[in-house]
Amino acid sequence: MSIIVDRHQTDFLYQQVAQLIRDMKQQGTLQAGQKLPSLRVMAANLAVSVPTIKQAYLELERQGLIEAKSKSGYFLKAMDLLAAKPKRRRMLNQPVAVQKQSLIEQVYDAIHRPGVVPFGIANPIAASPTVKALSRTMRRVMSMSGQSAINYGPMDGFAPLKKQLIYRYLDFGIGVNFDELIITNGAQEALAIALQCVAKPGDVIAIESPTYFGIIELIESLGLKALEIPICSEQGIWLDDLAKALEQHKIVAGVFSTSVNNPVGSFMPEANRAALVVLLESHEVVLIEDDVYGDLHFTEQRAKPAQYYSQKGLVITCSSFSKTAAPSYRIGWMIAGRFAKQALRLKRALSCSAPLLNQWTLSEFLASGDYDRNLVRLRQILRSNKERMIHQIQRHFPIETCISDPQGGCVIWIELPVGYDATRLFHEALEHNISITPGSIFSASDKYQRCLRMSYGLTWTLEIEQAIAQLGALLKTRR
Ligand SMILES: Cc1ncc(COP(=O)(O)O)c(C=O)c1O
């Protein structure tokens, strides 16, 4: 065996060994049912200790990937970790005015209840907290800047942070002018400003179905209409459905996740991203790309933002540090391109500027390299959590449950068999102090009653496994 472990990585050696075995299974080097090398042979091959291998094997056993057979050793399980994926939905959608706020409010209440198991909140950094590094950095900023860091900041954002973001876009071959990039209060404000730059009440906005409920709320509060375009659980938006919708309706903009979708975790391939921009720009329709999960990919390469493919300047990119550093800092940004002047006016009218101390701290956090170091670790933990969660759901949920296989982010999309009701499960689970997100809030109409979203952006503990078993038990008693 020619695999190696690297003692300089931040991961523990046993985690690296476990990851190597997962990779070998995925690449087909190890086959289902195959016997793994003994602890001693594996330890000698990888030049690590026997207890390290033992710990890796125990971890994989806990995840349901391998099993110990008495007196024979460890074997790769025959069962495929990945369950059936949610199926393609054929939808004949019409633009609709949205009315979803009541259930969304109940979901927000649930996630902020003290002591709940937080499957309902998509907060990936809980899996690899940044709090120590950020507090250190913020203290340093306060002591070197004095009063300046708590003054009002510039409307368009703190220049050093803007420069760092512009520099990062250069890595994708995207040249951003300083004035085009505006720092906002999270991605949510960036999306709100983008929508107000291009649409007026009554206009039709194409959205993914299912999509992040914050987008649905925005559309509702701005008096717009939503036209749902179905997505594929692996590759994001179905482009042929979007093409048909563009022929049939007067759409002014599309709000789409161009990297990893929330709630399904699909990952739009490069070719589709390019084709999406060409398709929309050929109809003079603005693409508002939501890239908040871009840095949390499990794929080898991060998705190049769709902005890269724009020929006509009709792409507005929105993103934030909420999923990768600190959601409470409320720091996001937009590349507003040709809409920059209008966007800045709206930004000033809505919230003046974004918190300067938080921008300054994030700018230092990026400059120190701590941001990128934590990202590597965060992605690894999230990927491992995803596999654990899929395994536990397969163990405890009804047999015909379909589960998405996220290619990034921190959430999983589950479709229960016919006859089950996910909103009822949401209410019942809450009585047991477990929060989940019912599927219907990810649709502008009333779709996805049998679906739910669960977050694996958390620290994995026995309590988490018990909560999944509890959800399974609730499902078994009710149909
Ligand atoms: C897909 C998506 N877009 C936008 C947002 C809003 O991000 P922020 O917290 O930076 O406003 C979220 C937050 O959950 C999200 O999941």
Automatic annotation (TrEMBL):
CDD domains documented for this protein: AAT_like, WHTH_GntR
Residues in HTH gntR-type domain copies: 11-79
InterPro entries linked to this entry: Aminotransferase_I/II_large (IPR004839), HTH_trans_reg/aminotransferase (IPR051446), PyrdxlP-dep_Trfase (IPR015424), PyrdxlP-dep_Trfase_major (IPR015421), PyrdxlP-dep_Trfase_small (IPR015422), Tscrpt_reg_HTH_GntR (IPR000524), WH-like_DNA-bd_sf (IPR036388), WH_DNA-bd_sf (IPR036390)
The organism's place on the tree of life at top rank: Bacteria
GO MF term list: DNA binding; DNA-binding transcription factor activity; pyridoxal phosphate binding
Keywords: DNA-binding, Pyridoxal phosphate, Transcription, Transcription regulation
Gene3D superfamilies to which the protein is assigned, alphabetical: Aspartate Aminotransferase, domain 1 (3.90.1150.10), Type I PLP-dependent aspartate aminotransferase-like (Major domain) (3.40.640.10), Winged helix-like DNA-binding domain superfamily/Winged helix DNA-binding domain (1.10.10.10)
PANTHER family on file: HTH-TYPE TRANSCRIPTIONAL REGULATORY PROTEIN GABR
Similarity remark: In the C-terminal section; belongs to the class-I pyridoxal-phosphate-dependent aminotransferase family.
Protein name stated in the entry: Putative transcriptional regulator YdcR (GntR family) protein
